[in-house]
Amino acid sequence: MARQSSSYAILCASFNQDNSGFAISTKDGFKIFDSNTGRLCYERAVGAFIIVEMLYSSSLLAIVGAGEQPSLSPRRLCLFNTTTGAPLREMTFLTSILAVRLNRKRLVVVLQEKTYIYDSNSLAILDTVDTVPNLKGLCAFSPSLDGCFLALPASTIKGSVLVYNVMELQSHCEIDAHRSPLAAITLSSNGTYIATASEQGTIIRVHLVSEATQSYSFRRGTYPSTIFSLSFAPSLQLPDILAAMSSSGSVHIFSLGFATNQRCQRSSSFLGSILPDSVNDALDPADHHVLHTAVSAGVRSYAVVRKVDKIPDSSSSEFSSCRAVVSLITYNGYFQEYTFSINNKNESSWSLDREFNLLTFISDSAKSS
């Protein structure tokens, strides 16, 4: 997530590359949690941070201070070892760091008008990408080494996105996704799909990265709303589910797998045959499932699809249902986890499995002392 307002108890929140862990920061320090168990794995109370990024479940963190202390400058990136409790390397930039992304081969540092690409191991600079003014540090990163892409805004007046191949160090394509500026971007973990939302927040569009072609267009709602986050389900092949968190407090699930079946059915109908796919898809609510008021309206929240299980149909080679685990972090300090289930009749249900306060959470070692 990009840098956030200090009016919230949580300054930043991020899941690691496989969603097995997540980090939060407050004015006092940062905490690392295990997503599967909710266990507090590490905490450090040394001041406020605006960026805390994990490298999978390793001991390496990329952290950036909020500037409330001279030693925690927002222009300084610290690569921190949680095992030793000491910095491994510090890098200082001319302007504030707005976002950091990394995998086992690449480190990406996003500033307002420049983005730097480094080798993660040697920290040698590999490329510098000049960008349009990116005040929010908006970006997306696919950590897979086979499809490692970086997405950045390509315009300040419309919703264009630059897709950059981080391994080959070259621009891949530019996609004109929306008429108004971008508010949210995400890439699937394998770099196959990119999803975008504009500042209007009414339409979510999904493009195939390899060909820069639109694959899906989903209508979130009629009235404008801020999209706080977008998240594809993890997948080794094609993701099945896309989640969006809106300022209305609702979680929106778009089922890509069922969308393909619905599109085939619509194309054989009279109306489907005369409407273009982009209009047809946006008008069809069948692929859209909503959990209303998951959090209070207006509270900034971050939702990810952590995992998806497909339940096979015993009478055929297809799947009878799909079950997804959706995790939410609210910037007023709560973690929630839901199970979303959908069957082959497009019937869906939600259940709240876990909820706890991130700000008052006490580690196991503190409990036993």
Summed up:
This protein is mostly beta strands and 369 residues long.
* Alpha carbon gap, first and last residue: 34 Å
| Overall geometry | globular
Indicate the radius of gyration in whole angstroms: 20 Å
Mean pLDDT figure: 89
Report the count of strand segments.
Answer: 28
Per DSSP, what share of the residues sits in E-state strands of 2 or more residues? over 45%
Main sheet: strand order: 1-2-3-4
Helical fraction: under 10%
Word description of this protein:
This protein is mainly β. It is globular and about 60 Å long. 8% of the residues lie in helices and 48% in strands. The chain has a domain at 241-256 and 283-361.
List the helices and strands and how they pair.
Elements: E1 12-15, E2 21-25, E3 30-34, E4 40-44, E5 49-54, E6 60-65, E7 76-81, E8 86-92, E9 99-102, E10 106-110, E11 114-119, E12 125-130, E13 140-141, E14 149-153, E15 159-165, E16 170-178, E17 182-187, E18 193-198, E19 203-208, E20 213-219, E21 227-232, E22 241-246, E23 251-255, H1 256-267, H2 270-274, H3 277-283, E24 288-291, E25 301-312, E26 319-330, E27 334-343, E28 348-357, H4 364-368
Antiparallel strand pairs: 1-2, 2-3, 3-4, 5-6, 6-7, 7-8, 9-10, 10-11, 11-12, 13-14, 14-15, 15-16, 17-18, 18-19, 19-20, 21-22, 22-23, 23-24, 25-26, 26-27, 27-28
